[in-house]
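Our example pasted here:


***
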Amino acid sequence: MSIWDYANPKRFMQTSGAILPWIAVGSVICLTSGLIWGFFFTPDAEKFGSTVKIIYLHVPSAMLAISAWMMMLVASLIWLIRRHHVSALSAKAAAPIGLTFTVIGLVTGAIWGQPMWGTWWAWDPRLTSFLILGLFYLGYIALWQAIEDPDTAADLTSILCIVGSVFAFLSRYAVLFWNQGLHQGASLSLDKKENVSDVYWFPLLICITGFVLLFVSLVLVRTRSEIRKRRLQAIITRERFA
């Protein structure tokens, strides 16, 4: 069986319907256990106090905000090259979820930044590119809503997604390109000097796993809804001209 077989809406609906409950349950288990462990059973940090625990929301949401756009990029490229409607609909479905994660990342980052840096916001390269990424999310969603023809909308939003990927990339790696700025390095790194302590690292990994499973669950739910909506529109159109 080829991966392209899942571009068939019927096959996608069958497969996603079978795995969706398991992914959803996994996300609930990981999020519940990770957040409870992180917020209630980890100590305050010597330097940051209890504010360090915001990483259990901030780090996963920021990672998923960027990863969601990269997933949309892959789906958009598949649409432009292979013209598979499921890929275009999955990119459309992921956008509001990615925007939500971006907002969570910005808000939790501001909550962290005020006591740590003495300001709610700074025009740091990474923060600025992350904010611009959020604006691209808004533009992407608005463009889908503004164009009636779904194939034309998929074409134009795919191009927009390619352009916006520059800022998704900068949001992830800006601290490597510019040394100035308030934002610290990655919390999860192969470099032990940059990595968080194990006492925070293990619950953080569980939270990230939960957020990833939540993202996949929501994308599947929204993609299935988009397919049903497309089918309903086709039926209405066919009956109208029958």
Notes: The mean pLDDT is 84.
